[in-house]
Hints:
This protein is mainly alpha-helical.
Amino acid sequence: MPVLPSPEEIYAARTEKGGWKRAQLAEWGVPWPPVTGWKDELIARWEAAQQGQAPLTPPPSTPPPDTLDFG
Length: 71
């Protein structure tokens, strides 16, 4: 199961250029390339866990097979 970082940990892990490394995102369960809204989704999961709720399931890293378009 991926690590669930706090909002502070997310922003503290930024590189000097303001991005995040691929390995760090993988540790958090974020697919590469990261999709729009990944930070908000991680923060929402962390907040839900802090309130004793079941954390939200992360989105799949690849689309379901029936949605793949090869041409």
